[in-house]
Amino acid sequence: MITHFALQTLQHVLNMALSLDPELPERLTSLDQKVLQLDITGTPLTFNITPCAGELQLSPASAATPDCTIRGSVFALTQLGLAQDFKQTRESLNNISIEGDLELAQDFKKLLAELNIDWEEGLSTIVGDIAANFLGNRVRGAYSWTQQSAQSLQMNITEFLQEEVLLLPPRAALEDFYDDVDTLQLTVERLAARIQQR
Q1: If you placed Cys at 46, which of 19, 38, 61, 112 could pair as Cys (CB 3.0 to 4.6 Å)?
Q2: In what order do the strands lie in the sheet with 36-40?
Q3: 17 and 117 in contact (C-beta within 8 Å)?
Q4: What is the pLDDT of residues 165-176, one digit of tens each?
Q5: Which helix (H) or strand (E) covers residue 58, if one does?
Q6: What domains, with CATH codes, occur in the chain?
Q7: Is residue 92 predicted with pLDDT exceeding 70?
């Protein structure tokens, strides 16, 4: 069970970070007083999240009856939160359960996806504009480099597996194979239809 002090601290830190997105309070109004319960399996963390007056209020799970409960491991909840397609990801994760108002869960997911926190602005109040801009540029550069490196690595691994080790067929060969399978399936269906006619 998470303590009241820990929840209040988490709520304060969370709302401080969320205050860096100036459009968030307006987007939260549609969710006012809706209760989403998070139950993080494998931990004693179960608590309610309730949007109220443009902020998020965190409370113990026993404080209110939730409109929606999302239960899963930290890893599964993180995957669900970061996923582009909520429904497809939810269905592919076996260790996630959602009970109650599914639309509310989707609205919270959409809210997360639309977050536009200006970390640089928040940092500038602590270290100044010049240092915050410098750090922001470095972080963006590192992020860009990481993405380019990941794409390059993926392309190199794919090419190695297709061309050098011959474990994977080239994309063109796969597409030809799928076309052949589709053609064969149509031929079999036509043959079956002819046999049934006789």
Answers
A1: 61
A2: 55-60, 46-52, 36-40, 68-72, 96-100
A3: yes
A4: 667 777 788 888
A5: strand 55-60
A6: 4-113 (3.30.1050.10), 119-197 (no CATH)
A7: no
